[in-house]
Amino acid sequence: METLTRRQSYSRIGMLLALGAPSGLLLLRAAIGRELPGVRFVLRELTRDPALYAYAMLSTAAVFWIVGQWLGKAADRLENSALTDPLTLLPNRRNFEAKLEAEFARAMRYGTPVSVIVLDMDGLKAVNDRFGHQAGDQALKLIAASIVSSCRTTDLPARLGGDEFGVLAAGVDAQSAFTLAERLRGELASFPRH
Q: Can you point out the beta strands (E) in the chain?
């Protein structure tokens, strides 16, 4: 099943709301003419001025679609920034903990394993102190990229904060998690230690 972004959802909702524009125009004309907006009235109005009603619906649909795109894009961007670490572009602690909770519930329900690996990167403060914060930021980006390249596509690597990273490995038992942790340790141990 396709998951719609807010941008897509808001635009579609706007298009549906636009269908109400001709209805509003019909009600206004009925009120001005002091008539009840029954079926005969509606059919007479629609056949008398179809271009006006088509214009009301299409122009309103266009405006609602544009506003839906704009608002939805802003909402998607806001949600993404609330769940993503801005430096490494990995999921942040909030995102990680939410996924962990869901994965743990699934593991309890179906009796499947789930593993969590936490990596605390020692020495990053020294990089910041010696080479500056830009170098420290670059080191964090390289570490994040290295973690991502060592994980399966089904794993969830995340930046938990500061120099701490985590990997959520669903369906992975302790032995396989140990193998993944060793692969990560080996990959990260190859980084220069200046």
A: 114-120, 156-161, 164-170
Residue 184 in tokens: 């990560």
Interstrand relation of 114-120 and 156-161 (parallel, antiparallel or unpaired): unpaired
Six-digit token pair at 99? 């996924």
For residue 35, which phi and psi values (nearest 5 degrees)?
Answer: -120, 160
pLDDT (tens digit per residue) in 61-94:
899 889 988 998 998 888 888 899 999 999 999 9
Residue 171: enclosing H or E segment and its boundaries? none
121: left (phi over 0), alpha (psi -120 to 50) or beta: beta
Q: What's the pTM?
A: 0.68
Q: How far is C-alpha 13 from the geometric centre of its chain's CA atoms?
A: 19
| Tokens matching residue 192 | 């220069």
Residue 158 near residue 90 (C-beta atoms within 8 A): yes
pLDDT at residue 33 in the model: 87
Q: Which of 115, 142, 114, 7 is nearest to 134 (CA)?
A: 142
Q: Are 183 and 169 in contact (CB under 8 A)?
A: no
Q: Which two tokens stand for residue 150?
A: 């060592």
Quick count: other Cβ atoms within 10 Å of Cβ 175? 10
**Edge-first strand listing for the sheet containing 164-170:** 114-120, 164-170, 156-161
